[in-house]
Design goal:
This protein has 326 residues and is α/β, with parallel strands linked by helices. The protein has one domain: Alpha-Beta Complex (phage-related protein like fold), CATH 3.90.1690. The protein contains 10 helices and 12 strands. The strands form 3 sheets. Strands 5-12-9-6-8-7 form a 6-stranded mixed sheet. A 4-stranded mixed sheet has the order 1-10-11-4, covered by helices on one side. A hairpin with a 2-residue loop joins strand 7 and strand 8. Helix 1 packs antiparallel against helix 2, helix 1 crosses helix 4 and helix 2 packs across helix 4. The longest helix is centred in the middle third of the chain and has 26 residues. The radius of gyration is 25 Å and the shape is elongated.
Amino acid sequence: MHDIAKLAINVYKGTGVATKFSREDSLETLRQELIQANGGSEKLTPKSFRNNPTLFTIIEEALDILVEEGLKGQFDMFVETVVLEHGDTKVFTVKENRLFNVAVIADGIGADIRRDRLDTGELTVRTKIYGVAVYEELSRVLAGRADFTELVNNVSKSYEAKIQNQIYEAIYASYDALGATYAKSGTFSEAVLDELIAHVEASTGMEAMILGTKSALSKIQYAKESNNSTDAHNQFGFYGKYHGTDMMVVKQAHKHGTQEFAIDNKFLLVVPKSPDKFVKLVLEGDSMIIEGQPENRKDLQNEYTFIKKAGITVLSSSKYGIYRLA
């Protein structure tokens, strides 16, 4: 990794910067290094990428690490994140999730016990290219009108939000593959949710938890509330615990360019607190910043886009539950 890329990451995180330098000094040092990598110019031109690729390499390396850290941190509980070299593929082994049958044999009597085995299969996750336009931010950083933290926040958070939405859309779409035991729908019922939690815990042997947006979790209501549960609901908008089962908020977001929510507010997910990571996220290859000219631009100005390949799949053979509320 370039030393300047390391500096860029440290400035963003607020760590590793020499104490004799202020944050402003460190940002200015970084800006000057970026300008030097851009041939000494504060302006991006159609020739910047072709003539000064180091400029983009610095930012690509920094964003690569920050995006990967951000995605892994958000979903450690139920998402397995795999980072591959460009062109490589990851084949996941999918095992049947059940126990062996145990026969009862009378003492002293031989028995013909049917042999049992767990079926296995293989799954390859295909990746797609996801991109975020960064032209304006890069220009402002070089001109001194914005700092590096603004740039990486806009890019990394936008990319992470898109992948998060894709993960929850994939989980939501897996509903039909779960079967009647693990896929529930209708008006909220304590008995239905209790049964779903019990099935997830019985099939995994692990404690379960409930995930959903704050709006979705608020729809979980006791028929008879205690003073404690009423207070918790008033304070947080949901109980925090439901019959001893932890509840966790999934942060809501808007779909890009709209006021439409990205995550369904009538969708509860019941998952085990376990290493059984039923969602597979594959990040392929290094991040890149590419140059292009959109067809709808009239000023012949090029744009610069941060791209990274990712793929997502959900293993419906794993034991988790979905409750779609009416």
